Amino acid sequence: MSKFTPKPLLRALFLGTLVASGISLAQAQTTPNGLQTGEAVFEVLASEIALQRGEAGLAYNTYLEMARQYKDPRLAQRAMEIAIAGGSPDLAMEAAKTWDELSPASDTKPKEVFITLLILSNRWSDAVKPATALLRQQTPAQQENTLLQLQALLSKAKNESDALRAFYEIASTVKTPIQNPSLLYTYAMSAEKMGHTDIMEKTLRDILRKNPNDVNSLNALGYSLADRNVKLPEAFALITKAHQLSPKDAFILDSLGWVNFRLGKNSLALEQLQQAFAMKPEADIAAHTGEVLWVMNRRQEAEDMWRKGQKLDANNPTLKETLKRLKPDWARDDQISKGSWDGRFAVKVTGLTESQNQGGSGGFSLTQDSLKDVLEIRNPMGGSIAKITITPGEATLESDGKVVTAIDADTLVQNSLGLPLPARGLSNWLRGEVRPGSEASVERNSKGQVSKITQDGWDLTYTWSDTSRLEKLTMMRSSNIGSIDIRLVFDRPND
Q1: In CATH, what number is assigned to the domain containing residue 417?
Q2: Cα 293 off chain centre by
Q3: Domain that holds residue 257
Q4: Residue 383 pLDDT > 70
Q5: pLDDT(480) > 70
Q6: CA separation for the pair 390, 407 (Å, rounded)
Q7: Do 435 and 458 meet the contact criterion of CB atoms below 8 Å apart?
Q8: Contact by Cβ (8 Å): 115, 132
Q9: 163-166 — which CB contacts under 8 Å span 24+ positions?
Q10: pLDDT band at 355, cuts 50/70/90?
């Protein structure tokens, strides 16, 4: 028997595989790009067999390389589907982007999928360009539907401010005036995040002219005026009406307490804010409550309330701004941070099965200069293993003379080194700060030092010296491969 499969049978198997992968027989038969060569047939079959054997990474890489080689968007789509099924959102985005680039401009489906994947990965700013390109291709009715879909995804955003800013940029490209009241309200809130309070105020007043009892608009406009400390009598009237219409809404009660604080009624404001926090513990309500206590010279109670707020969400914009004004030692500006750390690490992975157990140790050096981090990882003998450079939106790893680039530093390290070392938030965490851009919880000791941070699935426990130097950092998390335990000991902490 020949060791080679006859070409007709190979072709039939190939077409069958494409059909099973969502590529129609008619499409495959008319593909003019060389996809039907023997080599291509073999690669597709090998990829599907690898996938069935659990080697999803191999199948993904082969499909994506073939898509680029043969300029065939269907193969990129298949790579994306494999990445999604394998729980690899970053790889899925890469494949979806390739799918969109290879597809005809008239085909909007790949762009829609790419945008959705970006947003679900909380990369709202990166979604602006493809989303605006999509809107330009759509009718007014389709544009409204797209904006409604984006609006629905806002609730999943880890950083609401970033998401709203992106929404404003996207929605502002629509030439036909928005009519949907819900979209108008979201547009108003997004305008405020961009600093366009004039647009926000005009939009909310337009809503209230049509519906004077719109509770959300009443509260939003009143709170904005109170927060800017302008038109306080009108702000009080707007919020009072909203409170009468919805007396059990904790956020409206927070607004009422805040406007009373602006009006100098501190005791009443504190009572209302404490009631609001009891109804709905939120970081921004904690920020307001703490500020009123601070002004009333009840400083320890204020700090206790802010601690509660940081446990809820240390990245809350209202809380961060409040702490920056009143407790600057609790809120540093990470945008101008510089520093360097040198130490040793040990990694232990306790897998779901004994064969999955793994570990490693070595040394590391981390240098931070504003928005650029450079992390060097060494083996136990001091030899260099890898150098990772991290900037916003990109990470580059240099190892064994090769350079690999990815959009996510943590994924890059895991894929390249096989060790689940967190890289993207490390410089912030080593300072005892949360990484901007995702929800985080902070706990502090009696000295006000950070004792624990929970962020990105990691639990970080801090050990400080008597001179407030970070001596040891323990990082733990659970993942689909088991539990991960990383211990960092510092030889040179933040010189």
Answers
A1: 2.50.20.10
A2: 33
A3: 181-330
A4: yes
A5: no
A6: 9
A7: no
A8: no
A9: 163/119, 163/122, 163/124, 164/189, 164/190, 164/193, 165/124, 165/125, 165/190, 165/193, 165/194, 166/124, 166/125, 166/127, 166/128
A10: low
Assigned domain for 223 exists: yes
What is the C-alpha to C-alpha distance for residues 443 and 448, in angstroms, rounded to an integer? 9
3-state secondary structure of 388: strand
Q: What is the pTM of this model?
A: 0.74
Residue 275, token pair as written in the block: 């009631």
Query: Which pLDDT tens digit goes with each residue over 237-280?
Result: 999 999 999 999 999 999 999 999 999 999 999 999 999 999 99
Residue 370 falls in which region: left (phi positive, over 0), alpha (psi -120 to 50) or beta = left
Question: Do both 108 and 216 map to the same domain?
Answer: no
342 and 237 within one domain: no
Residue 459: CB atoms within 10 Å: 14
Q: What is the CATH number of the domain that holds 199?
A: 1.25.40.10
For residue 253, which of 231, 284, 291, 228 has the smallest C-alpha distance?
284
Which has the minimum average pLDDT: 88-92, 140-144, 195-199, 210-214? 88-92
Which two tokens mark 131?
């989303």
Mean pLDDT of all residues in 389-411: 79
The answer to whether residue 164 is domain-embedded is no
Q: Which helix (H) or strand (E) holds 98?
A: helix 89-102
> Are 152 and 14 contained in the same domain?
yes
Residue range 456-482: average pLDDT? 86
Q: Which two tokens stand for residue 195?
A: 């600093």
Q: How many residues does the chain have?
A: 495
Within 10 Å of residue 54's Cβ, how many Cβ atoms? 10
Half-sphere exposure of 94 (CA within 13 A, CB side): 20
- The predicted pLDDT at position 441 comes to 94
Sorted by sequence, the CB contacts under 8 Å of residue 327 that are 6+ apart come out as 303, 306
In a domain, 162, yes or no: no
Last residue of a domain, one of 122, 156, 190: 156
With a cut of 60, say whether residue 11 has pLDDT above it: no
**What whole-number distance in Å separates Cα of residue 470 and Cα of residue 464?**
5
Residues 246 and 136 in one domain: no
- Give 116: exposed, middle or buried? Use CB within 10 Å, 0-12, 13-18, 19+: middle
Q: Are 359 and 482 in contact (CB under 8 A)?
A: no
| Inter-residue long-range contacts of 15-24, CB under 8 Å, 24+ positions, other chains counted | 17/44, 17/45, 17/48, 18/44, 18/74, 20/48, 21/48, 21/74, 21/78, 21/81, 22/74, 22/77, 22/78, 22/81, 23/74, 23/78
The count of C-alpha atoms lying within 13 angstroms of the C-alpha of 353, restricted to the half-sphere facing its C-beta, is: 2
